[in-house]
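name: query_chain
kind: protein
chains: 1
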Amino acid sequence: MKLLQYTWKNSMLKIFNSKMAVFAILILVISRTYVGPIREFSEAVNYPSSWCVFPFVMCTFTYLIMFWFGVIYVNSDAPFMQHVNMYHAIRVGRKRWVLGQIGGIFIRSVVLTILAVVCTILPLLPSIEWSTEWGKLLRTAGLTRALTQFDSSVYIYYEIFSEFTPLQLMGMEIFICTLVCTFIGVLMFLVSLFMDKIFAVAGSLVFAIALFPVLNMHPLLRHKLALFVPTIWPELARIATPDYGYYWLPSIPYMIGFLVIGILGMTILILIRVKKIEFHWENEDI
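structure:
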């Protein structure tokens, strides 16, 4: 019970701060830019858009990499050596302190993902179709590529409509994005404890930039590299669409297994590490 209480209090510190505010503004601005053409298409044909556009927006390279830059920026408070955490570590002990920090990373990851989802829905209001079906607008956009007339960078992958309903795809997208955000946050925590905050940021940036070689490889080779680059996995809307005859995204069970095992493994390493190091507390904002 004490661990849950501490995790909740720690999560509030991680959510309500200036870095989260910067992320919210950034994601709202870029979401408005990328979702704008969908709204223009909706107005042109006088038909509302489905609310489930976030998975397709995440398939846009520039949007996705900006999202990861924002996630890395928010998690740059690792290894959480601000003075406010000093009292927490003394009071609850190192083990609970670590688990509370990782729990806070997870809850913050949920909030980051939900913020991004909401920011892709807001530009569509009020002409939006709250339905459990995909609706005519996105189906038309997927079949005809009509969005290109509105200079849209978002591509609607028609094949996904036969695999998932909007609720299923959005739920899975939120789940995968949350796990990847948590993976990156815990990785930054781990690296900063063993090396330095600068190396933690640099290492996470490597994961983000790895999107580029994955997307520019031949699909047969892309499949192999994509197995180890979780930052590409939020492009879930592409999972049913072959590229030059190849399905290159890993399966959903593989994604979940990789991320969960990775997070648990890094958590164990962090717990071992904090037993052996001296904490150097900093006079820095969270």
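note: The longest helix spans residues 166-194.
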